[in-house]
Structure to design on (1042 residues):
């Protein structure tokens, strides 16, 4: 597939180059703008499309099996915590969708464990992980299986 | 090429791969090791790397113990049933009992989880799955890792593990190169947690042009999680257990929400429910496994494949009924937009509106991974309180190499973990790694400069091959002395496809084909010494190819060793077409000798630690 | 020094009409280069075809008043302050270079055409504009070239790598830099030395490369970019928006996530 970059919209900021998990968005040497250098390794993950501040990147479905004339475009707005999609079929039908992408301010409720309470002495030898057992919201301790019930071989 | 700088970094916990499992490991390691140096090395950019780059629409592994929805043993029974009995129940139980706390943390951090309006609980998609608006799933967990780790290295591909020269069979760290600056990086570490994701592009994909990119698992999952431990001599398990998925045609969009939430169903081109037709035939192959509820995934695949071969295709999913409900229609589309946008693109391009057209399904090419519905990966120790003595050697999730841990796709035998389970496994591995260090097991590790220098020469050899070999020809891509990474990849895919049970043979293989496959893979291994890379991006592709080739060898060896068809629908052994519980109700474990390159395989017993019958729910 | 008209001093050895012809020649080179680019690439044809196609998905027709408002805003913001580059170093460097070049060229034309006849007095403002413009161009351009170029910043290419895309910015920096050095050396009035002549030659050469290379460099983009910005803002106003979804109707309450970081993770 692939992503392609609109000549009139790209200003060479580098966000797409920085984010692509496949390392295939790179800078063209003649015009210093972004382009997809290996479309057959593009997953259509839209990370670059979402990252571009100028909405300069768009996707044309894989040439192997996607007829032309379609469009699936996105607007990811971090400050509003929303992502908006506009799908346009080859026959002109359009569909719009808006979803949330976060419920809390980014990073604010992710703890910095270095500053949190230290684990108790000897807790490293237990089976509990951070926040457990309270974080499981169950009564009592972590579930386990008594070793006497172990069996071996064909069971059913 | 210019001389490459070498950077040395000494750390305590090195996490290779910043995916779901890697972020979990980096996060939890800080809680247990306040003063330890924790470093995470990621091949791409941790904010959008791995299988969760485009987001997820569901968390496929959540018990719901707080509401009495499921218990860990239920999940073990489910995974065991789906894998026809072949799982590590201790690993599965361990993951299942912790996964709830992981999911609750995600909710705390801001991941939008859909709620059931009536009960206030997380909205269930199916028995194990809950629905989320997970477009930013990866950025959120990546932030957690960034807050815990001392440093996150991005754009560095780890190519080899370092071994300790002081003590036999102990890990010493890892080496890799930065695909932007070109520098060589040596990470000397007391413990290494490999969380480098599964393997796609091992078998030839259905689309071979641009469409190669639309693999079901990400094209950047190159099997490093397997190749790194295999090359170091760790034991691997269940590598023959590759997965074939039944997904929407061309786009490989997910069908889970459709079947479970929208309650759609499949039918063949004549409008028949074809699955019933194949009951008897499947029963002859696998016996009473076909009578289990729910039907194991591979057997449903098997019915699909048989139906298509018998001429009943194309097989469709009936969506026209469900899509009449506007809420379900929104769920159906957003399911793709938050997880596999490519499917929405395919339908938009082909004018497929599920309200009026029933979309086509297909079975994919095979993939190898450990966190999804199959469990290929490294052979690891389980937790002390759950593991039979044969499955436990000191530290949870530690491989058969001291100090080397695994999480996520890397770990074999624990199936149906998915994203939350992988993150949880990362946490388990991190805690065990910290304990390993605190128990003074990681003292006096010695990694010589020579070992690093030898790796450095090997890492940059493809650049050398190209630069020198380029002088022989005028131009173009054809050279008698080097091959490009894509040429090598296409050759590998063809070998696996034709001989090891790919789509070319409808997933069929036998001992003769596998022998031939091994021979061709050996020649490919030799030729990969001559892979040529033009620049650092191509160098990364070259090493991805090398890791894939090594993983493929292991997969082929395992497929040869297991002389039965345990998972019809994933692959078939033509010379042993039946499921053989008398001889093969066991796990397969292999080890590749790092010096000779020879694989040795053995059978290992399956311990069933959870009983068959479901415990009756306590009357409230 | 910066209030002395360097062209007036030059007029002692070079006749003014030669300097003026040179300026006109540079102008012609821009014209020819751009027209050749347009004819060869057919980019203007594409641009208007695309605008017509986009109009088909417009949800409303803009009145003349609305159009004028959008166009004025585009000129005042996108074009005059390069707002598409967002807030940051790239925008500051670009604005510096852009206004520096405008001042430098305007100053050159004014001084060469109006203040090179023997015995004329140049108002101090023009040489100051000329020198300041050149200095801004050198500063903004060099800052961009050494540190901010995306292939250096995000792709980790070495700063000394020169590619075809560098033709315009390097020629621009060279022209301003050599012009400044020439003006400085000339003002020192060193007897028996020809250093200022060397830099005058380099200054002329840089201008020839800059204006002669219009067909091969990114020079003409300075004409295309404003057109693109206008088309983009008009499309946003009339609802066609290049098939993009509209902005979501939600409060900005969550802060920045991955967008708070610079695109340099390696
Ligand atoms: C299409 C699709 C749909 C899915 N749907 C769901 C779902 O709905 N719900 C759910 O719970 N799960 C789902 N999953 C599964 C889930 O995404 C995986 O189980 C999980 O991401 C695996 O985690 P991991 O850390 O093992 O691998 P990954 O997340 O893939 O991470 C591996 C990381 O390692 C890095 N890496 C690889 N090689 C190297 C190297 N040599 N050096 C350095 N770094 C390296 C990669 O860049 C990557 O970041 C889905 C997966 C896919 C592909
Ligand atoms: S869609 Fe994804 S894989 Fe393709 S170029 Fe963009 S970021 Fe890379
Ligand atoms: S993110 Fe957009 S504007 Fe920036 S370089 Fe990429 S395509 Fe161009």
């Amino acid at each position: 597939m692939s992503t392609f970059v609109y000549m009139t919209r790209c200003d060479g900021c580098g966000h797409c180059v920085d984010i692509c998990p496949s390392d295939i968005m790179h800078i063209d040497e003649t015009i210093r703008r972004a382009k997809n250098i290996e479309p057959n390794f593009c997953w259509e993950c839209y990370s670059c499309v979402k990252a571009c501040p100028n909405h300069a990147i768009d996707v044309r479905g894989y040439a192997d099996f996607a007829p032309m004339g379609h469009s699936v475009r996105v607007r990811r707005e971090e400050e509003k915590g929303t992502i908006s999609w506009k799908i346009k079929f080859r026959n002109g039908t359009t569909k719009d969708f808006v979803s949330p992408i976060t419920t809390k301010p980014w990073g604010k409720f992710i703890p910095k464990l270095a500053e949190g309470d230290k684990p108790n002495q000897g807790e490293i030898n237990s089976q509990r992980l951070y926040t457990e057992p309270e974080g499981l919201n169950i009564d009592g301790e972590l579930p386990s299986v008594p070793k006497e019930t172990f069996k071996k071989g064909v069971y059913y | 090429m210019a001389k490459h700088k070498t950077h040395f970094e000494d750390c305590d916990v090195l996490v290779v791969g910043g995916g779901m499992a890697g972020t979990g490991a980096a996060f939890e390691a800080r809680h247990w090791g306040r003063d330890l140096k924790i470093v995470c090395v990621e091949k791409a950019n941790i904010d959008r790397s791995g299988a969760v780059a485009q987001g997820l629409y569901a968390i496929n592994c959540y018990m719901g113990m707080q509401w009495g929805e499921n218990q860990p043993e239920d999940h073990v029974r489910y995974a065991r049933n789906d894998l026809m009995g072949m799982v590590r129940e201790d690993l599965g139980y361990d993951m299942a009992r912790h996964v709830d706390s992981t999911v609750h943390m995600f909710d705390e951090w801001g991941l939008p989880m859909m709620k059931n309006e009536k009960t206030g609980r997380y909205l269930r998609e199916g028995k194990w799955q809950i629905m989320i608006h997970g477009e930013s799933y990866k950025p959120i967990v990546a932030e957690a890792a960034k807050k815990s780790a001392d440093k996150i290295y991005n754009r560095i591909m780890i190519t080899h593990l370092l071994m300790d020269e002081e003590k036999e069979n102990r890990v010493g760290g890892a080496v890799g190169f930065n695909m932007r600056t070109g520098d060589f990086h040596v990470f000397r570490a007391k413990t290494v947690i490999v969380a480098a994701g599964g393997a796609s592009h091992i078998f030839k994909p259905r689309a071979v042009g641009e469409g190669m990119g639309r693999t079901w698992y990400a094209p950047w999952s190159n099997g490093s999680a397997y190749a790194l431990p295999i090359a170091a001599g760790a034991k691997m398990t269940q590598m023959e257990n590759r997965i074939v998925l039944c997904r929407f045609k061309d786009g490989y969009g997910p069908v889970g929400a459709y079947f479970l939430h929208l309650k759609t169903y499949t039918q063949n081109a004549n409008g028949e429910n074809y699955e019933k037709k194949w009951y008897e035939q499947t029963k002859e192959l696998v016996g009473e496994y076909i009578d289990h509820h729910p039907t194991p995934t591979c057997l449903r695949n098997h019915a699909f494949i048989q139906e298509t071969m018998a001429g009943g295709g194309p097989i469709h999913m009936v969506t026209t009924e469900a899509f009449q409900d506007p809420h379900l229609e929104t769920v159906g589309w957003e399911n793709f937009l938050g997880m596999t946008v490519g499917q929405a693109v395919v339908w938009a391009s082909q004018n497929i509106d599920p309200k009026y057209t029933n979309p086509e399904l297909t079975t994919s090419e095979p993939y190898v991974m450990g966190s999804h519905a199959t469990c290929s990966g490294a052979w690891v120790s389980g937790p002390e309180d759950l593991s039979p003595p044969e499955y436990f050697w000191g530290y949870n999730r530690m491989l058969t190499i001291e100090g080397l841990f695994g999480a996520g796709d890397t770990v074999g035998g624990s199936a149906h973990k998915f994203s939350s389970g992988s993150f949880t496994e990362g946490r388990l591995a991190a805690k065990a790694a910290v304990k390993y260090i605190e128990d003074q097991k990681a003292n006096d590790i010695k990694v010589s400069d020579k070992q690093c220098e030898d790796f450095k020469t090997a890492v940059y050899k493809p650049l050398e091959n190209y630069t020198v070999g380029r002088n022989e020809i005028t131009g173009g891509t054809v050279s008698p002395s080097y091959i490009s990474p894509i040429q090598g990849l296409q050759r590998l895919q063809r070998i696996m496809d034709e001989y090891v049970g790919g789509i070319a043979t409808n997933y069929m293989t036998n001992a003769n084909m596998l022998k031939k496959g091994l021979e061709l893979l050996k020649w490919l291994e030799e030729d990969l010494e001559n892979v040529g890379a033009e620049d650092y991006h191509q160098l990364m592709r070259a090493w991805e190819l090398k890791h894939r080739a090594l993983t493929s060898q292991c997969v082929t060896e395992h497929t040869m060793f297991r002389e039965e068809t345990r998972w019809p629908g994933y692959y078939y052994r033509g010379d042993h077409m039946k499921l053989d519980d008398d001889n093969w109700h066991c796990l397969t474990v292999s080890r590749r000798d790092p010096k000779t390159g020879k694989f040795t395989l053995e059978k290992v017993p399956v311990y069933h630690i959870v009983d068959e019958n479901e415990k009756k729910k306590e009357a409230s | 020094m910066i209030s002395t008209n360097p062209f007036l001093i030059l007029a002692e050895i070079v006749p003014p009409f030669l300097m003026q012809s040179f300026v006109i020649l540079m102008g012609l080179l821009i014209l020819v280069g751009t027209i050749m680019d347009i004819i060869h690439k057919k980019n203007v044809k594409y641009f208007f075809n695309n605008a017509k196609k986009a109009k088909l998905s417009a949800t409303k027709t803009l009145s003349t008043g609305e159009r004028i408002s959008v166009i004025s805003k585009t000129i005042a913001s996108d074009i005059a302050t390069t707002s598409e580059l967002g807030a940051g170093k790239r925008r500051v460097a670009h604005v510096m270079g852009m206004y520096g070049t405008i001042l430098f060229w305007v100053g050159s034309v004014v001084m060469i055409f109006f203040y090179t006849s023997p015995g004329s007095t140049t108002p101090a403002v023009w040489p100051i504009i000329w020198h300041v413009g050149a200095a801004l161009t050198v500063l903004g351009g060099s800052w961009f070239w050494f540190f901010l170029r995306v292939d250096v910043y995000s792709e980790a290419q070495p700063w000394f790598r020169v590619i075809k895309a560098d033709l315009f910015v390097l020629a621009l920096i060279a022209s301003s830099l050599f012009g400044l050095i020439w003006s400085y050396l000339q003002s020192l009035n060193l007897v028996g030395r020809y250093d200022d002549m060397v830099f005058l030659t380099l200054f002329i050469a840089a201008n020839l490369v800059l204006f002669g290379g219009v067909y091969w460099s990114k020079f003409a983009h300075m004409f295309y970019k404003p057109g693109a910005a206008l088309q983009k803002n008009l499309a946003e106003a009339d609802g066609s928006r290049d098939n993009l979804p509209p902005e979501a109707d939600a409060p900005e309450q969550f802060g920045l996530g991955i967008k708070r970081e610079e695109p340099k993770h390696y």
